[in-house]
Amino acid sequence: MNNSRIMLGNAAIAQGAYEAGVKVSAAYPGTPSTEISEYIAKYPEVYAEWSPNEKVAMEVAIGASIAGVRAMASMKLVGINVAADPLYSIAYAGVNGGLVLVAADDPGIYSSQNEQDTRMVARAAMVPVLEPSDSEEARIFTKLAFTYSEVYDTPVIIRTTTRLSHSQGVVHPETREEVPDKPYVRNIEKNVLMPANAKKRHIIVEQRMKQMAQDACSFSINRTEYRDKKIGVITSGIPYQYVREALPDASVLKLGLVHPLPKALIEAFAKEVETLYVVEELEPVIEEQVRAWGIPVIGKEIFTVQGEYSANMLRKAILHKEIAKITPEQVPQRPPILCPGCPHRSVFSVMKKLKLHGAGDIGCYTLGAVAPLGVMDFNVCMGASISTLHGIEKAKGKEYVQNWVALIGDSTFLHTGVNSLMNMVYNKATGTVIILDNSTTGMTGHQDHAATGKTLKGETTYAINIYHLCKAMGVEHVYEIDAFDIVGLEALLKRETKRDALSVIITKSPCALLKEFVPKGKCIIHEESCKKCGQCLTPGCPAMQKQENGIPKIDAAMCNGCELCAKRCKFNAIELIPREKGGKA
């Protein structure tokens, strides 16, 4: 019976984890890794959760592994930074049940703030890395990762990229392996990393990596494909697909294990080919090690360290063939913009009117940095808005931050903003923090979090009350307000930014793309009353555009009746047509 299916790379990873007998999965949503957890949550045999951040997710998986079951944590590249503390330590301690970390890198920076290469983190942490090149390998490699984890007593990283995560391929699912729980055995020398124990474990880790590098020469996931030996290519992951397309006659050493590298296998391959290339996206991780062994190789001197590769790029770099390209002028432009009815737009429009600077964070609201709103001055990482505002105040004084606010979403606040706000309280800070509460993790596709009252499995749970949380930390001045109450919000911001104290404003209005969101109706413009002042256009709602006669027009298909435009119109030229109960506007 043919059980083949077309699957996303992320779905295939979830399938592989399921087949490997995983019992616990923890993650924080982050593109391009998000769908892994959404798919794995569909398997009733697996406990799956959204953790408040990646560090917690990693620690949950570690705890499950210590208890003796197979466990997995999933996150995007920058989430690895958050999870680095437990990752580096568990590499020393080792595992009980198999422990796998899925790290989704983002060559090309499609949805991240940098282009870091997880392989470099893995080298520093001394953790093995497997890198699949298609959906079927994603399934198979995930299963192998758990086997390697238990055989070598180590956490194992599955490195994916945006292209693999979100591409589809043929997968051949298999039945789930019911792996018996491993008994928990108390072992202080192994699991308690005080200095005396850690020194001994470091020696074991180094020996483990050497042994794995030797064994890797016979791993089936590292394979040699000999063809024309004039050109030889060492590659892995998605770049393997580009190599096969651009250089169909070249000999290839395809690495499935990219750390530690199989030195003897690479040396043997290098001797067989005339000219050797290393094709790898981002940093020259493989190339530098091959060069260090004294093997002549061509790499980043002809390839870039930036962005995604392509077959055309390889043809040009290696074969010197120019391929016709679509010029930027021929490609339709789609500027990043907040959705129609987005509550963030309402808040930002008030900030713009008051000429406030925004210390930014990671989320949909990052789009507040671009025209026409332009209220966010910078962003660094998850939770940094509050801490950077604190730093500005300590550097420049209380009066200086009267023109600043920190901007952070509800999910991001619970991710790492809580500690930052605690720090402001503890260190007697002055400043205004705006928590943009849209009841979801919006940017990554509307996942639940600790304040929504729903788990990853869809079960009802206690919803953290952000207002009471802020009060419990000692913030005296905490306010909740409808994000679309622009008059009330303006008055509140004027007062609180001038206050000689710390204050938190929680703007509450659900994301307009939530399934349970019900539009109020549609807004229409009475052209005879319009004075063409343009105030309704200032927030940049994509449902509105100016006509040739200067009068704005509202696209009924896009409008959801948030009334931001109507509230900004001083001439009552915009009217909300309420939505009929159970029907359309």
Main sheet overview: 7 strands, mixed
Q: Mind telling me the C-alpha Rg?
A: 27 Å
What structural class do helix, strand and pairing data support? Answer: alpha/beta
> Approximately how much helix is present in the residues?
25-40%
Q: What's the pLDDT, averaged over the residues?
A: 94
Strand order of the largest sheet: 3-2-4-5-7-6-12
Instruction: Tell me the fraction of residues in β-strands, as a range.
Output: 15-25%
Poorly predicted residue ranges: none
Number of helices: 19
Task: Estimate the global geometry from the Cα principal axes.
Answer: globular
- Termini Cα gap: 51 Å
Query: Based on DSSP secondary structure assignment, what is the total number of beta strands?
Result: 23
How would you explain this protein's 3D organization?
By secondary structure, the chain is α/β, with parallel strands linked by helices. The chain is built from 19 helices and 23 strands. The protein is globular, with a radius of gyration of 27 Å. The model has no long low-confidence stretch (mean pLDDT 94).
